[in-house]
Amino acid sequence: PSADDLADEMEDVDFDEEGAEEPDAEAWETEDDEGVEDGMEAQDDSEVTFSLHSASVFCVSLDPKTNTLAVTGGEDDKAFVWRVSDGELLFECSGHKDSVTCAGFSHDSVFVATGDMSGLIKVWRVDTKEEVWSFEVGDLEWMEWHPQAHVLLAGTADGNSWMWKIPSGDCKTFQGPACPATCGRILPDGKRAVVGYEDGTMRIWDLKQGTSLHVLKGQDGHQDPLTCVASNQDGSLIMTGSVDPWAKLVSSATGKVVCVFKMESMAPKAPAGEGEEAESNSVESLGFCNVMPLAAVGYLDGTLAIYDLSTQSLRHKCQHESGIVQLLWEESSAVVYTCSLDGAVRLWDARSGKMISEYRGHSAEILDFAVNKDASIVVTTSGDHQAKVFCVQRPDR
What does the UniProt record say this protein does (predicted)? Predict the structure, then answer.
């Protein structure tokens, strides 16, 4: 089921009806059983729940230096920095006027940046909890910190990508096509960035010169909007994902497509009715394994595909009941984490294609998640207005 189907299903559950006429005591007794949709709420494997948001929580990041702090942003126009160990609020990143869809810490955890849909970006100093910089761009699509410097990159709906030095605010813009810059990523060398656009093109930018090094378009590009980009650890390979539902492997040095991964949808295609579009199976998330030549691609139909880069072939297909929202690889092993619209986090062994474990606790879809460096905890955010911390220590370590 899509997020909309899930939302409709939840709307059909009448939480108040049961026991309305009975005395309070009995109403309380039955409350636990009512409104549990498909067991989504029945089980909670989380250690900590952060519940200061009053609407869907769209994004989460962990501070890279210590992994002890999380920042979350939500539909309630709020962002919070809080402690992962006990959910204790450190400070609120106040003053946003729209849903906070992007949030992240600088590489050294000195700053935290929050961005809302209207394009207001704010940066706070974590130790003093004070706002040090803010700027307003057009409608914000994505935002990312530089891996080695206090530099922030963001893409907007007018096709521009912006780069600022923080906190001085020195600014540079990279003009893309006149359509949204839908996704972007700074490459590991810190000198180049890859940006994907709604018209299916991808550009590799030289951050210093402000020039476009390579453009992928037409047959080489995608036929539909790009949804995600990733690079391998040394930045030699880039992977792009699109609504079209292809994933393309690109050499960052030459800008040439090395290989195209196309997934046939598992869901039986319903013939499109009058005025209805056939349901597309877009690529929602992708990433490279650091320890083996593997890449993972997560699809809207719930397929997790593990591709072998050395043979450019499909190695495993791991099926989820509902769409994958995001995937992340563990830093130092061949384990992939997925979160999906059914509200669960799953760990998969990419070598065998088998599921290692599953964690539940949310009563709605998971919208974003983060894994700490030693892969002992996962922090999730959800449409149920909550963020949760799960301990995922595994016996095989």
Answer: Plays a role in angiogenesis and cell migration. In smooth muscle cell migration, may act through the RhoA pathway.
Nearest-angstrom CA–CA distance, 200 and 336: 27
What the block records as the tokens of 64 is 């890279």
Residue 273 has pLDDT above 90, yes or no: no
The CATH number covering residue 141 comes to 2.130.10.10
- Of the candidates 363, 327, 330, 319, which has an alpha carbon nearest to the alpha carbon of residue 345? 327
Q: What pLDDT shows up at residue 263?
A: 77
- 141 in a structural domain: yes
User: What is the arithmetic mean of pLDDT over 188-203?
Assistant: 96
Residue 318 lies in a domain: no
Q: How many domains does the chain have?
A: 1
pLDDT-above-70 percentage for the chain: 84
Encode pLDDT of 10-22 as tens digits.
444 443 433 333 3
Residue 305 CB partners (closer than 8 Å, separation 6+): 261, 263, 296, 297, 298, 299, 314, 316, 317, 318
Nearest to 116 by CA among 168, 169, 76: 76
- What's the token pair of residue 151? 């530099």
